[in-house]
Amino acid sequence: MPGRDFESIYRDYSRLVYWAAYKVLNSGEETEDAAQDVFLAVLKNMDLLSGMSDAQLKGWLYRVAVNAALDMKRRDSRELLSDEPLGAEVADTGETPEDEAVGNDTQAEVRAALSAVDEIYREPLYMYYYSGMSVGEIAEALEISEGTVKSRMARGRKIMAKRLNARGISYE
Length: 172
What we know:
By secondary structure, the chain is mainly alpha-helical. Helix content is 72%, strand content 0%. The chain has two domains: 1-79, Rna Polymerase Sigma Factor, Chain: A, CATH 1.10.1740; 96-167, Arc Repressor Mutant, subunit A (Orthogonal Bundle), CATH 1.10.10. Helix 1 (6-25) crosses helix 4 and helix 6 (119-129) packs across helix 8.
């Protein structure tokens, strides 16, 4: 897409970058640091990125985000207490503290079930649900067919459903 600038890349893809890094780190603070590293790489590579299609750019950003997070995890293996995504503390849903606690417990169970799924099935699920990538974009980023992406996502969902149902959480 000609005429692409840093601000538009950040605006359009910051969510994808955040969730790709969060998938590896499971820590909001470290994820923000990894995302910052990714956007520094964007600034350094604007010439390369300006000639990419949207799908190529998403794939590049996803891979750089995962690599930045892996590098950070290797450098600093400490675990932080907060596992909430960026901005979660700002949202006011109007729920009671009890409702919010139950919702947080369910979210934690879903994240735990997803984390326990083999990487081959987990990665496309993260890309789809947390990074907002389409099946076609995931296929291009992972260099596999769309059918393979769909079957891996279906298998991952089945595994998650089995784990969640075993813990008394209805997952469909």
